Amino acid sequence: MKILVLNCGSSSIKYQVFDMDYEALLAKGLVERVGINGTFIKHQRGDQPKITRDIEAKDHKEGIQHVLEILTDADQGVFKNLDEIKAVGHRVVHGGEKFADSVLITHEVLEAVRECVKFAPLHNPPNLKGIEAIAAILPNVPQVAVFDTSFHQTMPPVAYIYGLPYKYYEQDRIRRYGFHGTSHRFVSHRAAQLLQKPYEKLKIITCHLGNGASVAAIKHGKSVDTSMGHTPLEGLVMGTRCGDIDPALVLHIMKKENLTIDEMDTLLNKKAGILGISQWSSDQRDLEDGYPEQNLKNNKPLANLALEIFAYRVRKYIGAYMAVLNGCDALVFTAGVGENSPIIRDLVCRDMDFLGVKLDPEKNKKTWRGAEGDISTADARVRTLVVPTNEELVIAEDTYAIVRKK
Ligand code: ADP
């Protein structure tokens, strides 16, 4: 069964096609600059070289039409015709408290996802546009929604209620939700496979460290806490997001600089984090290239500080979740930074032997670029693993499972 996976952002459409009979990735690509000048599609069929084509797409529907065109192209395509698409799985960022699992999209589900727009005003609307576009172009194809929040719906109230007047939870469902759920779920399952132990018996801390970043505490197969909150702004210091700060600072800076709500929102989400501290780049590769000596020689001491703050915050969350879980069996690193950065993994795990974490420097250095494996010393009580994430595969698997049951 061939399944199309879509991840629609505000001006981008990422796609992958899987043949679930073999769990094989057939093609992948993305449309960028949807609704802006200079729209293009990047596409890769199997292992063939990537191609880029300039296109016109004033909205997500036109963008998706281009995706379907290239997927049925004689040269670049993977379908003879569109009838071969048996289901479409969508990444949906926020499912609120309604969705603890992936679901088949019905009118009621669509309404519920629309209700969650208030929780994720930037993310859920483009997700909805993708669903609506497929419904218009391929009306008979079943669609499934896979939520970033659903894996964390198992968190207990002590982890998700804020120290705010309780009425905000009762009236508006203001609480911690957590994100990156498909990734935390995937890598924790994979960790159990690598350790050859039952998932339900393990305590695992997963660190999804990309441009956006979060840590999760997973006890016996259930997420019991995670660092992102009501929005993906809480928790770790990220590429451009501030993570945890004293909330009084929001008021203080707005007052001092006379900022509007939108300006403050942009500061916290787009100008802060590693970019804000380093005053240079949000891309960890830039900062790491010269870490630490070259950055000092280049008069970029703040690049070193930004990296060290990033790692320090991850370290603090690991310590906190060790306390939450009463120790853990495995610590997992994933996503762009977690998979590829021995420097960050070393900064995070250094001098953590008290907690049972000990990295093997050689294994740590050699594990990157899609490699998976155990990077801890033989005598470490906690197995520290690197596991490349694959959120699209999770979406395809959930879609396959739900559509097959139909
Ligand atoms: P997102 O999906 O949140 O945009 P990714 O998981 O793709 O993020 O991660 C992007 C981040 O990964 C970037 O900050 C990039 O600097 C970092 N990254 C990618 N490759 C490397 C590498 N070899 N070393 C260090 N950081 C890397």
TrEMBL record:
GO molecular function: acetate kinase activity; ATP binding; magnesium ion binding
UniProt site (Transition state stabilizer): H180, R241
Chief location bin: cytoplasm
GO terms for cellular component: cytoplasm
Pathway: Metabolic intermediate biosynthesis; acetyl-CoA biosynthesis; acetyl-CoA from acetate: step 1/2
Catalytic machinery residues: D148
Bound cofactor: record note: Mg(2+). Can also accept Mn(2+).
InterPro entries per the UniProt record, alphabetical: Ac/propionate_kinase, Aliphatic_acid_kin_short-chain, Aliphatic_acid_kinase_CS, ATPase_NBD
Subcellular location: Cytoplasm
Binding positions for substrate per the UniProt entry: R91
Binding site for Mg(2+): N7, E391
Family annotation (NCBIfam families): ackA
Subunit structure of this chain's protein: Homodimer.
Family: Belongs to the acetokinase family.
Name of the molecule in the record: Acetate kinase
Source organism: Candidatus Ozemobacter sibiricus
Lineage: Bacteria, Candidatus Ozemobacteria, Candidatus Ozemobacterales, Candidatus Ozemobacteraceae, Candidatus Ozemobacter
